[in-house]
Amino acid sequence: MITFETILDRHLGMGKFQNRSLAVVSLIDFSDGIEKQIIGILLSVLANQWHLSKDEVSSLASAYFIGIVSGTLSCAFFGDKIGRQKTLLYSGFFGFICMLWMSLAKTFYEIYFLRIFFGYIFGTTIYLGHIVITEIVPAAIRGSIMSLIATIFILGKIYSTLLCMVLLDGFEGGHWRILVGINSLPLFACFLGTHLFIKESPRYYMSRGQHEEAFREIENIALINKQQFFKLTQEEKDGLIESSQNINQPVEFKKLFRGKTGNFTIKIWIVFILTSIIETSSFILMPFWLHQDKKGFEQMLYMLLAELVANLCIQKVIDLKQYGGRSKLLALLSFVTFTVCLSMYFIGEQSLVIGLALISFFIKMIFTTEMVIMNENYTTQYRSLGVGMTQTMGKIVGAVIPYIIFPIYYSDPQLPFLIYAVSMFLLTLFALTFPFDMTQKELDNQEVFGSTNVSDSLMIQ
Questions:
Q1: 137, 18 Cβ separation under 8 angstroms
Q2: Can you give the pTM of this predicted structure?
Q3: Distances from the Cα of 267 to the Cαs of 323, 401, 432, in angstroms?
Q4: CA distance to 63, 112, 255, 346, per residue, from 115 (Å)
Q5: What tens digit of pLDDT does each residue of 167-194 get?
Q6: Is the pLDDT of residue 247 over 70?
Q7: Are 377 and 261 in contact (CB under 8 A)?
Q8: pLDDT tens digits for 116-133?
Q9: Are 456 and 258 within 8 A, CB to CB?
Q10: CA angle, corner 303, sides to 325 and 167, nearest 5?
């Protein structure tokens, strides 16, 4: 059967079209890296400058994630209903405006509600870049390309930290308004790039029954990549239409929980929640740990360099089958992280920077692997909904965890590491029981579904 993957390998390849799209959507992850890095730093600065109470610090940390939860829920539907391109376009513009406004905020409540609104805007955007790229790159390099996007996320964090070193006076004061204002610019660049270069993917058009639009976009991609005119044969068109019938079905939320798909959905939710416990709370607490240990931004850069090396490492192994596929790789990484976190609970005070660098290293590898798994294990018309709901589960943790982790930290700064260790041990068990693995397999491939019934084959089984 002729599928889009066949056309991609035979006629389109990896070229200028994908590289241009990659450059634009990477700005989303660059901005996400900036935001993740300054959350904890901004909390520390505002707590000192505005004399915030512990409850206010927790509320401000939670505000962004409250917005993110609402945004990811919305995008789970917007991404499929109005398209990836329009969602990215509007979110990039309003996110830019919101960050500029935030740099001018005068009161706690003003910045609190702006953080919620910005979270909502960013929540509609944060994972769409991964979906866009997943749908247009060849299966053989899908994992490595996705990990490249994650590298851009780390570069955003490094860029933000370097700005902090220039504009802030440690974790207690400085020109935080200029910092926030400058960090709005990548979102504006994303808005412009989306308007100029991002189009809906042929997979998206095929999943909606818009076959002629899909054919035109395929021929356009070939023209951009090969610099020569290309036209699909009638046989290829008929094959694409036939293969798309298996995914061109109405989207129903309940079908996320049927059969092996339901098995995968529940487990990836749990896995992502467990990862979010450590990923979210660690970057919130990191400035507080470092400030308590009389460390500064230089030590924070060590953590980021560890993440950068981790992403370069995961690029080399994520597409290999020798490790048993991505699920087994995820289980191995989470078990190693479990041992590091447990060690930090007992001896962390003597080796704080090294321990945090190791945790940053392995969590980055885990998170990148999970993003690839969740993006490729849903069919095209369910990808936004499946990935969006999984992201929402993780962001709910982000909204709740500040109210839990700060009291724990204030009672015993080492106790969060024990919670991290338990989370990683449970993650190892769940990763070993995923019902299927899509390493180097075609998206929407019926041979993987395990069913010829269209209504039961909406997901990879």
A1: yes
A2: 0.74
A3: 20, 20, 10
A4: 6, 5, 33, 36
A5: 988 888 889 999 999 999 999 999 999 9
A6: no
A7: no
A8: 998 888 888 777 777 788
A9: yes
A10: 135
User: Shortest CA distance to 240 belongs to which of 454, 6, 446, 455?
Assistant: 6
- The distance in angstroms from the start CA to the end CA of the chain is 19
What is the DSSP secondary-structure string of 12-31? I-SSHHHHHHHHHHHHHHHH
**Residue 287: C-alpha distances to residues 36, 274, 279, 282, 297 (Å):** 12, 22, 14, 9, 9
**Taking Cα atoms as reference points, which of 244, 243, 235 lies closest to residue 205?**
244
In the prediction, which pLDDT does 67 show? 87
Of 137, 114, 121, 23, whose CA–CA distance to 74 is shortest?
Answer: 121
5: Cα separation from own chain's centroid: 24
Distance CA 65, CA 283 (A): 13
- How far is residue 239's CA from residue 237's CA, in Å, rounded to a whole number? 5
Tell me the per-residue pLDDT of 373-405, one tens digit each, with 9 for 90 and over.
887 877 776 777 788 788 888 888 878 888 898
How far CA 438 is from CA of 20, 70, 142, 242, 250, in Å, comes to: 26, 29, 11, 22, 24
The residues, any chain, with a CB within 8 Å of residue 399's CB and separated by 6 or more, are 62, 65, 66, 68, 69
Q: What would you report as the CA-atom Rg of the chain, rounded to the nearest whole angstrom?
A: 22
Burial 319-345 (b: 16+ CB within 10 A, else e): beeeeebbbbbbbbbbbbbbebbbebb
Q: Please answer whether residues 134 and 386 qualify as being in contact, where contact means their C-beta atoms are separated by less than 8 angstroms.
A: no
Model confidence at 458: pLDDT above 50: no
Examine the pLDDT at 246 and tell me if it is beyond 70.
no
Torsion angle of alpha carbons 431, 434, 440, 445, nearest 10°? -160
Structure tokens at 320: 């290999």
The pLDDT assigned to 450 comes to: 47
SS3 248: coil
CB 347 within 8 A of CB 215: no
Percent of the chain with pLDDT over 70: 91
276, amino acid identity:
S
Q: Is the pLDDT of residue 342 over 90?
A: yes
Torsion of CA 256, 261, 266, 272, to 10 degrees: -100
